[in-house]
Design goal:
This protein is mainly β. The protein is built from three helices and 16 strands.
Length: 229
Amino acid sequence: MKFLDFLLSLSCIYMLQGIALAQNSANAFWFLPGVPITKFSATMVVPSVSPGSGYHAVWPGLENSGGSFVYQSVVSDSKGVGSWKFWVEYCCNPDYKATAVNVYPGDAITSVFSLGSDGFWTDAWSIVRGPAGVAAGASSTSGSSSNAFPNAGDLTRAVLAIETAKAGTWDFGQVSFTNIAVSASTTNGWCSTSYAVTPTFSYSVSGGTQQTVGGTTTCTYNQVLLKGP
């Protein structure tokens, strides 16, 4: 996969705000079963706030094989440098961005992307507050966003991503994703071989099991830790 293709596929967050693609940088861990994904779930712990300038975002999401469409649960400081906000977004054709929710370092955000029998995708999310969120008076909350994406085709790539823009850098420490499960329409075992990172950065993968039921193989991982560039 070419890095340029990856950048194009991750451009929606900031391109929608009129920021040039050339200012973006992206790091991602990819799950690549090579067939349609029907469910993807992960819990992300909100990292420390960046001490530097620019924009930063971390998210799990799904893409089609061409990288022209992404469905993502975004945590970003692009709506106010020095603080994190969470929203669900998909782009492009159709485009949608949900109302943003304040989140804080240590909050745990679980996102469950699932494809229904009616062809609609749903991102059901929940936020469990950590000590900083509780101290700020925030309550745990949940919600969901659903839509069909007939022009996007099959979503075949699951991704855990870190994106920066406007001279921002990955300067906010490690990002932890836990309780990860990816279900794909295949009976082939793909869990231990079909993942990759773009570009090269430090990471670790903990656990890893697979189960095939009917025509679906689900790969589960205890944790993927994105350590740093």
